[in-house]
Write a structure and sequence with these properties.
Blueprint (H helix, E strand, L loop, with lengths): L9 H30 L5 H21 L7 H10 L13 H13 L1
Helix pairs in contact: 1-2, 3-4
């Protein structure tokens, strides 16, 4: 799918940035909830290191996931919609071609 020819207006970049922030906040809130649950069951050193490893992996995943380069925007937004961190309502204001590409990508991924 060609994305390099797509131009993002300043308004669309602002919409994408706000959507990224919403998705990130939602995902972090879910992570905090999960960590609280896991921490409440810690019984020993092994549990501590397991939680540490889990958090390290999640941090690595999240750092890579939220790629805001223009060339990756459609793919990242589609991934966030597919994972239910974003809805199409969060992307309101993007042009129809970008929304249709995001829709198609959510079906392919």
């Amino acid at each position: 799918m060609q994305t390099s020819e797509l131009q993002w207006t300043a308004q669309e970049q602002s919409i994408a940035k706000a959507a990224f922030a919403k998705a990130y906040q939602r995902e972090i809130q879910a992570l905090v909830q999960l960590v609280r649950q896991q921490a409440s069951t810690i019984a020993g050193t092994d549990d501590i290191w397991h939680l540490h490893d889990f958090l390290s992996a999640r941090r690595h995943e999240l750092d890579g996931k939220y790629d805001d380069r223009e060339s990756a925007l459609l793919f990242v937004l589609a991934d966030l919609v597919k994972e239910n961190w974003l809805s199409f309502a969060d992307l309101e204001g993007l042009d129809a071609l970008k929304l249709s590409k995001i829709t198609a990508l959510t079906r392919m991924m």
